[in-house]
Design goal:
By secondary structure, the chain is mainly α. The protein has two domains: 84 residues, Homeodomain-like (Arc Repressor Mutant, subunit A), CATH 1.10.10; 118 residues, Orthogonal Bundle (Tetracycline Repressor, domain 2), CATH 1.10.357.10. 59% of the residues lie in helices and 0% in strands. The protein contains 13 helices and no strands. The radius of gyration is 23 Å and the shape is flat. The two termini are 38 Å apart.
Length: 261
């Protein structure tokens, strides 16, 4: 009986933003029902955030853009937090092959990470919204399903699969935020050399000493820290290199499980 009670969850207990994402919300009985919709509000919010960032986003700004009062919006979306959740949900609607791909699990993981990174690049504000729970909305759960697909044929239990999904998603988020910050800096007028530190390489070589920074010193002097001698870099893109090491680690883990059998 206790187990049954634990599983008897009620849909009406879902937070408002999540309920809206699943189409479980009740449409307002009053207000500009025919002229306004949740989708219209969310799309306008995304457009503002894409162009100006989350700092410029407010319910009053969206209402002004749509030609309605702020209170009209609250009849459809109860709070700004709900709006942010629905914005994330909207841009997480990513096209992905539904049929089983012929690519091996390694390539599937690469594809998944690149898809996630593309969301951060297309919508720079995405990573500015704090994570407050596991994915609970339809499109974000679809992303989890896509991530789990990379582990479908691997000898892993469900907890191992979810840990790998968290690892890949976390790396994609980190890469996406770093890339977003770099792009923002460039758009603001900062040079690539300033971002990489190359513009300050000569000054750093005078300031950084072997005594104070024993391990950084030789790396800095070689030019690797500021990519001074880029032609000598045989590793390629830093983000791709990191992803390959993660995949190598997963493969090593699979091999260790195989040996224990």
């Amino acid at each position: 009986m206790k187990d049954k009670e634990k599983r008897d969850y009620k849909l009406e207990d879902l937070p408002s933003g999540i309920a809206i994402s699943w189409g479980l919300d009740k449409q307002p009985q009053r207000g500009p029902k025919r002229e306004l919709s949740i989708n219209q509000i969310v799309e306008t919010a995304i457009e503002i955030a894409d162009q100006e960032g989350l700092a410029a986003l407010s319910m009053s700004r969206i209402a002004s853009s749509l030609g309605f009062t702020t209170m009209s919006l609250y009849r459809y979306i109860p709070s700004k937090d709900d709006l942010l959740l629905l914005m994330q949900e909207k841009v997480s609607d990513i096209d992905y092959p539904t049929e089983e791909s012929e690519a091996d699990w390694r390539e599937k993981m690469r594809q998944y990470v690149k898809i996630c990174i593309s969301v951060f690049q297309t919508h720079p504000w995405f990573g500015d919204i704090p994570i407050t729970s596991v994915p609970l909305t339809p499109n974000q759960l679809k992303m989890v399903d896509i991530a789990l697909r990379t582990t479908r044929n691997l000898p892993l239990n469900d907890y191992e699969k979810m840990s790998i999904v968290l690892l890949l998603s976390g790396y994609a988020r980190w890469c996406g935020i770093i890339m977003k910050d770099m792009n923002t800096a460039i758009q603001a007028g900062k040079s690539p050399g300033a971002i990489s530190g190359l513009d300050y390489s000569a000054a750093l070589k005078k300031l950084v000493t072997r005594e104070r920074y024993p391990d950084l010193y030789p790396v800095l002097m070689s030019g690797a820290y500021t990519e001074e001698n880029e032609g000598e870099n045989t590793l390629g893109d830093d983000f791709d290199f990191g992803l390959e090491r993660i995949i190598d680690g997963i493969e090593r883990y699979l091999l260790s499980k195989e040996k224990k059998r």
